[in-house]
């Protein structure tokens, strides 16, 4: 339990500050207007697809670094870490080009109104073209976490938030000689904060002895690139399936009206604070499971996954109580529209009920990934998102005219389904994928032995 908390709490703090960044952005943007809130929400729904790919590379490198350090294959861990950075640069540049040429068509697919489209297109281009920065942030943080360092990403998140909050205020509303830039200012603040974060993360890795950079490891290596793609692909597909389904049911919500979508977006920005708790324990589970799987100790890996899940359930249940009783009040910070506030309150009361199940889903998914099993969560997410969530949103919110209540009940049904299936699979011991037996550690004492270790890991 001590090791879990040592790894989880800094990760919780990191996620808290990352979540705070989105919260502050939405809070400031809400002062401009609800159309702008919807523009940011729709844009972020598409950017979430980008994040899915970046996060998948991060998942793969996190697991491989943890596995190889667990089996004391230090050089292999270093090499894969640097290859992940190379891959993230290529993918980030690719998404930047896509944004440059297809920002508006992608937003049109969401079925947004014209006033939202214009604002969303501008915001999308500013934050999406420099996608390389987002990609590097995901991967660099994952490398540090895979090496057992959850404190450095936490420190970077704090700095990013300070930079973002200050720049948000200055650029959105104007300050001294800086003109009022509105939504453009919010986008610029986000990009600058991410750039600062990337530089800081790179500096932390450069100073890390375990994952110290080597010049000869920057050369693209097809074997390691394929390893990252093979492990990360299911995680990417899982996220893409989830985001694609999200785009579909977001379209259903847009049909309900701009104000309803804005209420959904604001509720999501408030509920996401609960995710910071689960992701913190999921990070601990991935690291500890990965290390023990690499060392061949499956029983200890399972115990860490189980304890991490139970601890997350406890913390998130407490947060659920906060959501239930104070959701409406928190919503009033974003808007004074009484109907929007009421919708936010309804959404968060429903979300509160499902918090323990959400803990199971997120933490066990992290445990499965640490055990090299990224395919099962992918299959489960596909069924949950497209058969249960999207279908239920259409039936409950549109056909039965339950509005935002129908949307959040549908989300809850999906969460419960995935939690039950994941726990059954975990309890039966069908969650670990071992591709090969742990290799003997290699401890080079000479330059010649160092080369042998590198070539034979």
Q: What is the mean pLDDT?
A: 81
Taking pLDDT < 50 over at least 5 consecutive residues as the criterion, the unreliable ranges are: 436-457
Largest sheet: none
Helix share, percent = over 70%
Strand percentage, roughly? under 5%
Number of domains: 1
Q: Which structural category fits the helices and strands?
A: mainly alpha
Which outline best applies? globular
Gyration radius, rounded: 22 Å
Distance between the termini: 32 Å
Protein name: Probable multidrug resistance protein NorM
Membrane topology: Multi-pass membrane protein
Organism: Exiguobacterium mexicanum
Transmembrane segments: 37-64, 84-103, 123-144, 156-178, 184-205, 247-266, 272-290, 310-334, 346-364, 376-397, 403-424
Note down, in words, how this protein is organized:
It holds the Pfam family MatE. With 457 residues, the chain is mainly alpha-helical. The chain has one domain. It is built from 15 helices and no strands. Residues 436-457 have low confidence and may be disordered.
């Amino acid at each position: 339990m001590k090791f879990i908390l040592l790894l989880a709490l800094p990760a919780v703090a990191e996620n808290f500050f990352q979540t705070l960044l989105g919260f502050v952005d939405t809070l400031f943007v809400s002062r401009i207007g609800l159309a702008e809130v919807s523009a940011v929400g729709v844009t972020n729904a598409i950017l979430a697809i980008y994040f899915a790919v970046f996060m998948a590379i991060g998942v793969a490198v996190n697991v491989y670094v943890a596995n190889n350090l667990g089996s004391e294959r230090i050089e292999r861990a270093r090499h894969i870490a640097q290859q992940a950075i190379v891959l993230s640069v290529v993918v980030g540049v690719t998404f930047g080009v896509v944004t440059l040429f297809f920002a508006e068509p992608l937003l049109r697919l969401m079925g947004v109104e014209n006033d939202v489209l214009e604002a969303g297109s501008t915001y999308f281009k500013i934050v999406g073209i420099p996608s390389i920065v987002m990609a590097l942030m995901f991967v660099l943080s994952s490398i540090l976490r895979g090496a057992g360092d959850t404190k450095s990403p936490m420190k970077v998140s704090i700095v990013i938030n300070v930079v973002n909050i200050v720049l948000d205020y200055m650029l959105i509303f104007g300050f001294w000689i800086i003109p009022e830039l509105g939504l453009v200012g919010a986008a610029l603040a986000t990009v600058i904060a991410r750039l600062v974060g990337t530089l800081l993360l790179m500096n932390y890795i450069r100073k890390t002895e375990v994952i110290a950079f080597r010049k000869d490891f920057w050369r693209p290596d097809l074997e390691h690139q394929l390893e990252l793609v093979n492990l990360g692909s299911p995680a990417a597909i899982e996220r893409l399936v989830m985001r694609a389904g999200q785009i579909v049911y977001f379209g259903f919500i847009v049909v309900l009206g701009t104000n309803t979508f804005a209420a959904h977006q604001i509720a999501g920005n408030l509920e996401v604070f609960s995710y910071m708790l689960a992701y913190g324990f999921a990070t601990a589970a991935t690291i500890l499971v990965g290390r023990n799987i690499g060392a061949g100790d499956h029983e200890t890996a399972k115990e860490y996954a189980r304890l991490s899940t139970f601890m997350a359930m406890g913390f998130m249940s407490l947060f659920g109580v906060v959501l239930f009783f104070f959701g409406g009040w928190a919503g009033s910070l974003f808007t004074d529209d009484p109907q929007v506030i009421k919708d936010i309150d309804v959404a968060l009361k429903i979300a509160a009920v499902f918090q323990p199940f959400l803990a199971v889903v997120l933490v066990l998914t992290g445990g499965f990934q640490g055990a090299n099993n990224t395919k099962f969560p992918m299959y489960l997410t596909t069924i949950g998102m497209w058969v249960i969530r999207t279908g239920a949103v259409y039936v409950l919110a549109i056909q039965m005219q339950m509005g935002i209540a129908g949307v959040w009940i549908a989300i809850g049904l999906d969460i419960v389904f995935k939690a039950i299936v994941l726990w059954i699979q975990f309890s039966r011991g069908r969650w670990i994928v071992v591709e090969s037996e742990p290799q003997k550690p290699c401890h080079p004492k000479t330059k010649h032995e160092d080369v042998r270790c590198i070539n034979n890991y």
